[in-house]
């Protein structure tokens, strides 16, 4: 069995170099070669985590994550920190495993962003001592739902705390990849998602001025 450091470097290489990293991850999964060693097992477990068909017609959290990773690979050149950005794309929904529940006939994953921050941090601490990198990835995971909360003026929005931890432009970029990684995307929906992200950035940056 390969050691954790070797696997981490291999994952890292595909995240940073592949046009569509999902091909590699789905290939090793399909061949039964996905690393059966913690913390990588946390990713494979996402294949069994369902999502709301209404919001995620693509299926499991794993399928969604693969779409997000490919979107992120396409956009990473405009990221301020491409390395942290790509790992955040891969780990952004780790919190859905412990939070996904069936409530009144609906599949929900409340607070998966908060739980995900802790799990992503624990995941990376197994693999690297780069605290700055771990902090950035964890912060992106923590705040990847803020665009929804801010645009809809929900009580879960916390712009001040988010801005103290991470760049709003980085959160916006990850969130756009997250929103686009959902089943079939029409041009109209694509434009709507981009407009929502612009609103989120505008509200957040204006908040900073007050």
UniProtKB/TrEMBL annotation:
Residues 62-146 form the HD domain. It holds the Pfam family HD. SUPFAM superfamilies: HD-domain/PDEase-like. Transmembrane segments: none annotated. It comes from the Bacteria. The keyword Transferase does not apply. Keywords: Nucleotide-binding. This is HDIG domain-containing protein. It comes from Clostridium ganghwense.
């Amino acid at each position: 069995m390969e050691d954790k450091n070797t696997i981490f470097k291999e994952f890292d290489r595909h995240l940073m170099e592949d046009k569509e990293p999902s091909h590699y991850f789905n290939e090793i999964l399909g061949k039964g070669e996905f690393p059966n060693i913690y913390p990588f097992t946390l990713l494979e477990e996402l294949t069994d985590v369902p999502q709301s068909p209404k919001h995620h017609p693509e299926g499991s959290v794993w399928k969604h994550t693969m779409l997000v990773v490919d979107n992120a690979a396409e956009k990473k050149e405009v990221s301020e920190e491409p390395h942290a950005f790509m790992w955040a794309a891969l780990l952004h929904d780790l919190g859905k495993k412990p939070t996904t529940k069936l409530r009144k006939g609906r599949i929900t994953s409340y607070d998966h962003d908060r739980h995900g921050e802790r799990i992503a941090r624990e995941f990376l601490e197994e693999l690297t001592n780069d605290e700055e990198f771990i902090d950035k990835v964890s912060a992106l995971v923590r705040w990847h739902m803020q665009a929804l909360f801010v645009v809809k003026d929900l009580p879960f929005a916390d712009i001040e705390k988010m801005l103290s931890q991470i760049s709003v432009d980085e959160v916006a970029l990850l969130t756009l990849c997250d929103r686009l990684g959902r089943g079939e995307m029409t041009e109209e929906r694509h434009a709507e998602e981009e407009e929502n992200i612009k609103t989120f950035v505008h509200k957040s940056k204006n908040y900073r001025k007050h």
